[in-house]
Structures are given as C-alpha cells and as structure tokens.
From TrEMBL:
This is Lantibiotic ABC transporter. Residues 153-323 form the DUF4872 domain. Residues 13-141 form the Butirosin biosynthesis protein H N-terminal domain. It comes from Flavobacterium sediminis. It comes from the Bacteria. InterPro entries: BtrH_N, DUF4872.
Length: 328
C-alpha cells in the first residue's frame, strides 16, 4: 500500500524533512530553513556520558521539540503515539497509512537498511508513506536517498531501540485545526522564543554557555580519548554532514533569517544575517580543525579550536540578544 500523490520533502535535516512531508499533505509548503526557524530549532549542547564512545556536540534544540514548536506556531494539531508494544506501534502506523495519512517516525538509524554509516543514533526521523509484505517506504533526507525503503523487521528494530534520545516507538501525525496564523506574527514569535531559550540555558553545557564550556572540554576530551582520530573526525563529520545543513545548523538558521527579513522587511534582521554568515564560517573552521586534530593528534589545533569556540560563544550571544530585541 503506497499513498497516492505523496510528495517527498527535499531536505537536509531529518526532523524538518519528516515533518515537512506531513505538512505537504495539508497543502502547507514551506522551505526547510523556514520550518527550522518556525520550529525554534537553533540550539547547542555538549553532552558527555560514560556510556558514550565520545562526547556529542549538537546544534539544535532537543528531539521532538522542533515539530511541537512548528505545530504550535502554525496552529496545527500534533497527535503523538508512543507504546512499548511493537505490535501496537505498527498497528497505529498501518491504520493511519490505510486511511491515507503519512506518519512521522522517530528511529535509531543504525538499523535502517539504507544507512551505510552504522552509528547508533536514536534521534533520527523519517516519514513513512507506504508498506508491503516485506518493506516500509520512507521519506528521508537527501543524504539518505530521500525516497528509501527498509525491511519491516529493520523498521521495527529502529523504532524500538533504547538509549540516548530514544522514545517508545514514537510516531506522529499532523492535522489542521483552524486558520493558519499571520506569517509575520508567527516568525516574530518563533525568533523571540528561540532567542530567549538560547540566552537562558538551564545548565552550563547548553546554549551560548555550552559553547564556551566546550572550549575547555575539548582539551579534556583530547587527553582522555582512546582513539583521537576516530573521535574528532567522526564529530567533525556529524557537525558538517550529519543532517545539519553544514556549520552545525547555523547555515539553516541564517537562511531562515534571510527569508524572514524579506518577509518582515527588517533591516535589523538583515544585519544579523551577516553576523550568522560569519558564525557559520567559524563553525566550519571548528569542524575542519577537528578533522586536522584527528589527522595529526597535535594539541595546537585543540587550542585553535578552543579560541574559536570562545569567540563563537560571544558572537552567538550577541546575535541572539539582538534578535530578541528586534522580535518584540
């Protein structure tokens, strides 16, 4: 059973791609940067746990929140289903598909047949638009073939995986519940809330404070790493190519601001767009330095990356303060 007239979303980030394809079914067509911005998606986290092979550097808000924010800002109804039963989980998805509704899924991409790079990451998203006796048909990011298929068994394993960022077979659908809000108001509210959250992190390893903390944490990481090449080069690859749109999501947010300043006709936002150009370039430099650290195992590149992270912390704080004032 394949949904007729399903339009795959052309995206770089998994959650915006999955949610964007569900919005297509409602006749809502927005760019990926606009979805990311309306989802109040920009963030930062440096996370390290003993069970992790190496620290995680993330550039967006926590999983699931992006779609929740998009739906709130567009006055849409989000229906979420979670269960510990793999049978109930599949039945819920199947019923929606049989009723003509595409479904968003949260997965551990490690189990998906079409993923060549086998890394456990349970915060991946894709939408499902069909199935048969053997396969599920998914809309994933451009990097992952966009229109992909995986065995039903692999899908079951991916949905039911445990560990960091995982959920209990989470699936979701989106429904219209009224008139779409004024686009200008939605954009301003999303910018304001994103800036407020970024500037007020609940703990020191999140937001601009987290970027600053990372400047010293990477020094500890280098000294304790059991495989410097693998750790730092994998991290660099995830920062640039792991569905972030490059520069740890800063390219996506810059493009959202660019689209927003045209809609809002705001010279102030236009100035911040240029600031995020610089910020994005600096994040690319950090990723390049991480790769060089892996190649050379030379501590001087750690120091260079550390200095840039301190600079980035201040620049991102300043830019978000401006956006918070502008969007009031």
């Amino acid at each position: 059973m394949i949904l007729e007239h399903f339009k795959p979303f052309n995206g770089q980030h998994c959650e915006t791609t999955a949610t964007g394809s569900l919005l297509y079914q409602l006749g809502i067509e927005l760019s990926e940067p606009m979805l990311f911005g309306l989802g109040e998606g920009l963030g930062y986290i440096f996370w390290n746990m003993k069970i992790m092979d190496f620290p995680f550097i993330g550039g967006r808000i926590k999983p699931d929140a992006l779609t929740e924010n998009i739906c709130r800002n567009l006055n849409l109804k989000l229906e979420v289903h979670e269960t510990t039963s793999v049978n109930k989980a599949w039945l819920n998805v199947k019923q929606n598909l049989d009723n003509g509704k595409a479904v968003g899924l949260k997965l551990d991409c490690y189990h998906l047949d079409y993923f060549a790079n086998k890394i456990h990451f349970a915060g991946h998203y894709a939408s499902i638009y069909g199935y048969d006796n053997e396969f599920a048909y998914l809309n994933d990011t451009n990097q992952q073939e966009r229109v992909a298929k995986t065995s039903l068994k692999s899908l079951e394993l991916a949905r039911n995986e445990k560990g960091p960022m995982s959920s209990r077979n989470r699936s979701y659908t989106i429904h219209q519940k009224g008139k779409l809000p004024d686009r200008k108001d939605a954009i301003k509210q999303a910018i304001h809330r994103n800036a407020t959250d970024f500037l007020n992190p609940p703990i020191q390893n999140i937001g601009y404070k987290g970027i600053y903390k990372t400047s010293s944490e990477i020094q500890k990481w280098f000294k304790t790493s059991k495989n410097i090449k693998k750790d730092f080069q994998t991290s660099a690859s995830l920062m640039e190519n792991g569905g972030t749109g490059g520069s740890l999501f800063r390219n996506l947010y810059r493009d959202f601001l660019k689209e927003s300043e045209e809609i809002l006709e705001s010279n102030e936002i236009r100035k911040v767009v240029h600031e995020y150009d610089t910020i994005a370039t600096l994040w690319k430099t950090v990723a390049d330095l991480f790769y060089r650290i892996g190649e050379t195992e030379n501590f001087k590149y750690i120091n260079e990356a550390s200095d840039i992270l301190i600079e980035l912390s201040e620049k991102e704080k300043t830019s978000m303060e401006k956006l918070k004032r502008i969007s009031v």
